[in-house]
Amino acid sequence: MTATNQQEIKKVSELLQKSEYTVCLTGAGVSTASGIPDFRTPGKGIWSKINPIEVTSIDAFRENPARFYHFYRPRIEELKNVVPNQAHYALVRLEQSNYLQKIITQNIDNLHQKAGSQNVLEIHGNLSQAICNRCGAKISSQLLIEKIIENIQQIPYCNCGGILKPDVVLFGEMLSNLDEAITEASKADLFIVIGSSLQVSPANLLPEYSLARQGDLIIINYMETPLDYKAALVINQDVGLFLFEVCKHLGIW
Ligand code: CNA
């Protein structure tokens, strides 16, 4: 760690110690070290290969579910084998030590919960289950995987004949838990964005609710974000390594 890093670690630790209610907003960058590509890292992100809006919007799902599942099938399958990384575990430690009150996540991979975080609010749903578009039945991703594998390249159907949709928020759909996320962000005197490009609305508006009540904003992300200029601290480093160092500094790792 360089001297600058040490200063940033100290400053983040101090803000965590001072804060009475800390909320983190996590994005795909928290899970890249687990082997799940993000959307927007140039050359590696999913968007560098395909425009997800073309295949993962609610309209695309309705118009061409087979094409939708051609894109989603590997994503659902890969979830079987992925495990949390240092960033997820650091957030568990911060929560257990009462430095962190809520994680609002845009991720759909269930890894915060797998790592052991208790207070997680998912705003883009969760890929570990699916829902029937006709009868509303919910099934586990395990069953969904079995159905998809049985019908390679085709469409998974519910027992009632309806089409099963992964229980995630597609482009063009309403966010889940948005009211609760706004309430949480409005309570935060410290709001930390972790591994998100802050390009996706309305999730990227959440930091504003904390800023409006004079909360401090910290952004930990490799790439710059549109809210960097409002942040007390911007850290362009690996989220797992940085959070691990913060936990060590706080004596909880
Ligand atoms: P994004 O727009 O792809 O941004 C991710 C950001 O993370 C980028 O700016 C990267 O620079 C940064 N990043 C990547 N790895 C690291 C790292 N190790 N350390 C520091 N920074 C890193 O993704 P967002 O989450 O902002 O966008 C929201 C979308 C992406 C949501 O709809 C998600 O559901 C969707 N998504 C989720 C997953 C997942 O669940 N793991 C994966 C891919 C996309």
Describe, in plain words, how this protein is organized in 3D.
The chain has 10 helices and 9 strands. It has 253 residues and is of the alpha/beta class. The protein folds into 2 domains: 1-36 and 84-124 and 175-253, Rossmann fold; 42-81 and 126-168, SIR2/SIRT2 'Small Domain'. Helix 9 (206-212) links the parallel strand 7 (190-194) and strand 8 (216-220). Helix 1 (3-18) packs across helix 10 (239-250) and helix 5 (86-96) packs parallel to helix 10 (239-250). The two termini are 17 Å apart. The site of carba-nicotinamide-adenine-dinucleotide (CNA) has 27 residues, from loops.
Give a quick precis of the structure.
The protein is of the alpha/beta class.
Supply the CATH class of the largest domain.
Answer: Alpha Beta
* Order of neighbouring strands in the sheet with most strands: 3-2-1-7-8-9
Shape: elongated
Total number of beta strands: 9
Under the CATH scheme, which architecture of the largest domain would be assigned?
A: 3-Layer(aba) Sandwich
What small-molecule ligands were found? carba-nicotinamide-adenine-dinucleotide
The count of domains is: 2
